[in-house]
Amino acid sequence: MDALPEHHEDPPKTLLITLTGKDRPGVTSSIFSRLAAAGVEVLDIEQIVLRRRLVLGVLVTAPRDWKKLRTVIEETAAGLGMNVDVDRGVGDNKVRREGRSHVTIIGSPLKASAMAAIAGRIADSGANIDRIERMARYPVTAIDLHVSGTSPEQLRTLLAIEAATLGVDIAVQPANLMRRGMRLIVMDVDSTLIQGEVIEMLAAHAGHAAEVARVTEAAMRGELDFEASLRQRVSLLEGIDASALDEVYDAIVLAPGARTMVRTLRRLGYRFAIVSGGFSQITDRLAEDLGIHYSRANELEIVDGKLTGRIIGDVVDRAGKATALREFAEKVGVPEAAVIAIGDGANDLDMLNAAGLGIAYNAKPLVRSAADTSVNVPYLDAIVYLLGISREEIEAADAEFGIVTPAPPVA
Length: 411
What we know:
Oligomer: single chain
Strand content: 25-35%
Largest sheet: 7 strands, mixed
Number of strands: 17
Helix content: 25-40%
Number of helices: 14
Structural class: alpha/beta
CATH topology of the largest domain: Rossmann fold
Number of domains: 3
């Protein structure tokens, strides 16, 4: 009987080395020292540390005696108390497929079932999750997925349905340079930058708080013409002493995280504007207090120290907000695609649509369905996670200026 021919394996072109285990100083340097001795080229590398557990993946060219290198790597890993896999013949680091997006998920809490559903919808679309980063773990959990293979527009439509079903916030943005550039942020004021509605606070001084609140709610839902409803509500303020404006301003409560968001993004060169259907006597002071560059709102008429119940000049309504956004973008020198608009009511819709990224913040259902994305957690600074900025980076920057963030609960 003839002897069977000896089988010869074709030598691999690349090796993928995956190292896992408890993180400690010197792990990465030990592995690369062995790779350097073998004279290989590094084609790709990823490393993360999750709760002091290291995952290191390195794609290298395979040397002639690749089995010897595999043995050396396995012995090195064993000496470090780590686990290692060396896979032969994996593909090289090809350019990721067309259609690249950042998918940011914010939950409080973020359950495994939600992540499973989101990952499933991404897979159904034919896209792939290339990388996952944690942006925050407290007071919300924020995760950023790097996705390729499907257009951001298609992915946004698909995941918007999932977000509503799961009760989490999902933002889809193109993975391009815009996310890293200086941008203009244009914000609504009432129930967005601040908690509550200034006009209702003023109306309380005239005994009309409940009546004004009913009209305001209907207007924000889009059930009433904004200008007509505003003039109707302002007429009820007739006779109020102008000093009430100071009292109202002193009683204003900012949205949680408002100062953090403005402070953080100003450090990166962002510009800010507030555009409000409220009143300049309040918004101008807010802008000065927070370091906001531009402000536009309606001006209450005051005669002999009393509110007359009238507005001076044109009303800043739904269309007026969008106009202000475009004018501020021109002043800053950025395209509308580089503008982020944040609002909660129907009169914000044109402004949200005019921006490159329109964010409905704790908004009415009508607004959530029309905006690019929505944020429904009660923290305005959660918006920075959509821009690729992590909670750790914010706290580190604050610490340099002596701003101490309370420690999160141990998890």
